[in-house]
Amino acid sequence: MDLKELKEALDGTYSYLDVPLFEIAGTRITVATLITLLLILIATFLISRLAQGAVVRGLRAGRITAEGTQGVARRLVHYAILVIGLCVGLQTVGINLSALFAAGAIFAVAVGFAMQNIMQNFVAGVILLVERAIKPGDILFIDGRVVRVIEMGMRATIARTRDEEEVILPNSLLVQSSVTNYTLRDSLFRLRVPVGVTYDSDMAVVRQTLEETAATQSWRERGKDPVIHLKAFGSSSVDFEVSVWMQDPWLAPQRLSEMHEAIWWALKEAGVTIAFPQVDVHFDAPVVESLGRLGQTA
Length: 298
Fold this sequence. Notes:
Elements: H1 3-17, E1 20-24, E2 27-30, H2 31-61, H3 67-92, H4 97-103, H5 105-114, H6 116-131, E3 139-142, E4 145-152, E5 156-161, E6 166-170, H7 171-176, E7 180-181, E8 189-197, H8 203-215, E9 227-233, E10 238-246, H9 252-269, H10 285-297
Antiparallel strand pairs: 1-2, 3-4, 3-7, 4-5, 5-6, 8-10, 9-10
Helix pairs in contact: 2-3, 4-5, 8-9
């Protein structure tokens, strides 16, 4: 093939690539522009994969090893790079983005209202990722129940209750509501056990028994001593509260049961009676005399 034939072949190829296909916002789209856009999108995906890997390595270097947190960060980076790449590609092929935005403004407003809750949860997911106040594995008290966070997504967080039920929590609920995170900075948890004894009990013996019982629990936190408080003089009992610290809030119901049993047997062995509700009825003197006369006549 001589130079003349090569030139004719190239001219034919150029003419084929320059064939107009359609128009967008007044811009003529040809085969060449489509190929250019496709190459930019492919490069965008490659850059996204590299950036995701760099983010994961950065999180691991910062000792953020939770898979849920890493997954959310990767998705955020991926979506951001895709949007940037698409905008760059459209601008490169000559499409006026401002014209597109203006043409789709009404549609965008309608979609925005329809996706208001979704976007709210998405933004809340970003806030949770940045602040890291809630992480996979954390134990929370929210909406009247204790749950353990299993997975954090862009729209919702999946948690599990103590009954092994999986709950889907919208991210906006975690951001806007008052949430107790038992494991935010540490897993130390204070277990409180109320107990009431009769008024004729020896209070020194009661306090000593409660202190010894709490101190002998194998699961309690050794760095913090149990605390015994006399809380109130109730209608039928003298009310104490035993406070014991432990390391796993998830096991609180089990440890509470063990504490109740231990206190029951310890007080029983010490000869102290655990009080129960009772009512004392007192009669005035005229009533007592009337009842006595009724008894004599009977």
